[in-house]
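Appendix B, Record 12. Input sequence as logged:
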Amino acid sequence: MKRTDAPAVPTSGTAELLLGHRFANQEILREALTHRSAAQHGRSNERLEFVGDRVLGLLIAEWLAERFPAEQEGALGARLAALVSRPVLARIADAEGLAGVLDVAPNEAKDGVKRRATVLADALEAVIGALFLDGGIEPARQFVRRVFEAEIAAQLYPPKDAKLALQEWAQARGPDLPRYALVERIGPPHAPQFVMRVTVEGETATGQAGTKREAERLAATELLSRIR
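Logged structural output:
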């Protein structure tokens, strides 16, 4: 039975224009645009963000293999890690106007939650997941290739691994190396999320991911983006 008591999809027409896709299932679009602060009955965009993270990784890996056929796995992996990092995702989400169609609780909106990098990055992954579930791989591929084109074009050379780059930065300034520590583990047992903190030279940043290693890399990437 079709629900009649559900609130309207937040600016769904605008969202569909931004994403370049007409959704057959409007509930998926609604879920992708709903921050946990505004979720009813647990229907926030966190599950779609989980799906979108995997879809994005696949599509970027596919694209990089096509674009750089002579590069080895290590170089491709470095490109992939940089492209799916939180700062890049947040930058793309902001440029695409996702903040304007994201549904958050009024008190959170007043606090500027829509402009937080984590919220923007999660929203971008959620809409990619929604595109995939609603229309299959092709709508997701078209969207990813459109919004990531400038980022990929700017990658003239494979970037260094963030943890290695941060270590080299620290070694050039003194004997202290970056120190990583687990801040907390969140989420259900079948899909844990790890929050890792990196500290070096009095600077600190955190990263959150499904593995400690990836969370450390995100923390290093965040810290590098600030100190540079």
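The beta strands are 179-186, 193-200, 203-209.
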